[in-house]
Amino acid sequence: MLADWLAFPVLGGLLMIQTAIISRLTLLNGSGDLILLALVAWALHERVRSALVWVLVGGLLVGWISGVPLLVPIIGYGLAVALARIIRRQVWQIPLLAMLFVTFWGTLMYHALTIVTLQFSGTPLSWENALTHVTLPSLVLNVVLAFPVYALLNDLANWLYPEVVVKNA
Amino acid sequence: MKTLVSRFWQTALVLIIASGLILLALSGYLQPLLHGVMSPLVGIQQWVSSRYIAAYQFLTAPRDMATLQQRNFELERQVAELQAQVIELQQQLREAQVIYALLDFARAHPQNQYVAANVIGRDPSPFLHYVIIDRGSDDGIRHGMPVVTNQGLVGRVDAVTAGAARVQLITDASAIVNVRLQNSKVEGQTHGSITGEISLEMIPQDTVIQLGDLVLTSGLGGTYPPDILVGQVSDIRKQPNQLFQTAVVQPVVDFSTLQAVLVITNFRPIQLAPLIPTPIP
Hints:
Helix content of chain A: over 70%
Mean pLDDT of chain A: 89
CATH topology of the largest domain in chain B: Thrombin, subunit H
Oligomer: heterodimer
Strand content of chain B: 25-35%
Structural class of chain A: mainly alpha
Low-confidence stretches of chain B: none
CATH architecture of the largest domain in chain B: Beta Barrel
């Protein structure tokens, strides 16, 4: 329950950093996505039971601030988190590798969904321009940002869900 | 009596010898002798003096060192405080320069009413070119109001909350601005893109466009007031098989360093949607 409530300050704080700083640090036209990375890192933690509330909070916050349709971040983040949960169930002994894997595919899925939605809403976007000027640079920035965000969220999850050690009598 | 005379002569002799020596010294005849005698004495004096000073410094140095260290620490702290003040004042100066420029612009265009706002963020999505400003409906900001700087057109208000608003920049891929070329008076449209490039479109092929031509808002469509500077033509793309020619417009506003903007609050965009015919089912 506490973990669900913590989604508001954590994701709200990250969104402030995102809009004030990260969105200004661009590579070509791409920028990192702290919310996506935070949700993926949260969902990949072995003791986190549910990431649904975090997805909804993150999606709603981004949908409220951003000009993209509200459902895009909710569905986009939901897809990335679903991928993270599937990956977590597999035998991934190196969580950081899983983080990078999900960051890569999660960014691609989220951007593809955004491009399709914007095209449907009448915004003239070409796939070539979107991929070369936005998605690929964003991918690079997300992979770079994945390490600190993973460390931060991993510590938070460890604090919220401490490891229970069972001692045999 | 004899002893008394002898003493007198002894005294006189001493005085005569002393006077002679003084006269010889004053006349410079004893200089080599004095030099030979004084040099070792001066050397000895110097040695004694230097040893004394060394001993004095040895005894007093620790106290002075502590004082100096404390003084140095205080000065370093003062320097750090002053550096922080300098940075803060430089920041305030930059903000003041931006505000003065906006104020000059507002005074030069008294027909409009403005609300100044700070840019506090950018859209999280890299596909969209929107900024977030710190003024909202409580300050009289409404949807569709044009946003400018002292340099030129920035965009229009896209969404409003009580204390903040989202502004769609003219570089956004879905932003269209009706414009005219200042020299040829020909009207066209600018379109943004996801790369931030602005293209000038719908210009007839027979129109002569020149590099550096100024692009101003035309006021058509009622979305923006007329005669606001948008940018300059920086490249012309003319193909004979196309109906219209296009050009690249270099915006006058530097959107990457946008800090403060002015919202024109007495301009209400005209809603053309009711006038557009809809197909009858």
